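Our example pasted here:


***
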Amino acid sequence: MKNTSKEERNEYTFDGFCKRLLKNETRDYYRRMQHRRKHEVPLSELPEETLSQLAVWDSYFENTYLFEIMGFEISIKDELLAEALKTLPQDRREIILLSYFLGMSDPEIAEHLNLVRRTVAYRRTSTLQALKKCMEEKADE
C-alpha cells in the first residue's frame, strides 16, 4: 500500500463523502418525483366538475349601482338601498353619500354645498327618515 499523507487521505475521504452525498440526493430526488407522478394530477387532466369546484370567480362591480359625487364613484351592492337613493332629490342624495360613504362631517358638507351646517344636519336626518320609509315600503312589496 502506498504511503499517503494525512492531507491526501482527508481529500479522498471528503471526495468519497461528496460522491455518496450526491448519489443519495439524486436517489431521493427520483423517489420524490416518482411519488409526485403517482399521487399528483395535473390541472389539465382534472374533470370539468372538479375544476369548477376549485374555481373562484371575482364579482367586481357585478350587480352594483354607481353614484358619482365629487369625482368619486360610490358603488352600492344592496339593490334596495340603491333604489331608495335613486328616488331622492340630487341635493339630499349628495348629503347622504358625502356623510355616510365619504365620511365627511356636517361642516365639510356645508362648505362643499354652500349651505349652513344646521341645514345639512336637518336635511340629513329628514332624508334618513325618508330613506327608511321608502326602503320599508319596497321591502314589503
User: Anything to note?
Assistant: The longest strand covers residues 65-69. Residues 6-39 form the longest helix (34 residues). Helices lie at 6-39, 48-54, 79-87, 90-101, 106-113, 117-140.
